[in-house]
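Late entry, written up from scratch paper. The run itself happened at the end of the previous shift, but nothing got recorded in the book at the time, so transcribing now.
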Amino acid sequence: MILNPKKVERKPWELFFVGFFYAALSVLLVQWIFSGDPVLAKYSGILIVTFTVMFSMPYIYYTMGREEVKDVEISDSFRLLREHSKAIYAFLWLFLGFIIAFSSLYIILGSTDNYRAQIETYCAINSPSNYDFCITEYGVKNSKTTGFATGGGAFIGILSNNIYVLMFTFIFSIIIGAGGIFVLAWNASVISAAMVIFSKSDLINLPLSFLRYMVHGLPEISAYFIGTLAGGIVGVSLIKREFKTDKFWNIMHDSMLLMVIAIGILVLSAAIEVFIIPQFF
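Output as recorded:
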């Protein structure tokens, strides 16, 4: 009701403010409601992501429905990809809003409890051999990713993990329609925690940290959004019981084309993360 998804295709940047509002409201609600709970406070990081997903679901569902209609009405593959790119572009602005809100409020509120799960994920990825120390220091002493040192081995590991996430996002979106948004909101929160760690919890350093992670992060997340869209349009088609018609196979063809494009983007993103980013940061 606040923002018409049809209008968003003309001004996708407006979704940045929507994403910022959803994420900020989620953090503040969890801080206000659950910070004093001796049990639930331990899982604040998951609750923040859950609230963000709940707020985002209506828009994502509506967008999936619109994109599925385009699949039925448009037969030209290149024109269809251009139409889908509008939704992907809007999703990216939503994601950027999530990241800026999560990272800014992490520093302003100074509550590491709200991001405990995200910090643990960061340490598991970046400092698995020194995990306990990383958790204790919240990653500040290990702010530079060490996995890059293995070069080609890191590239294969990162790429295989990203493709696994893409497949999970695709399947999750088929089953729950917009279910992939949970994976994306979670990734936004983990990237935000990593940005804060890299910036040493200083708002002044946050823009540089944002640049460091977004160079490879934006193409990577765009691939996940493409996977979400690919799975979502198949899920909507199944709900409409179109699997017995020719329309469904056209949608499947479009969905598989989107997945191939997403995998190609992940290859590029992994190469940037492993071979280019360490040269500058």
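Residues 139-150 have pLDDT under 50 and may be disordered.
(Scratch paper discarded after transcription.)
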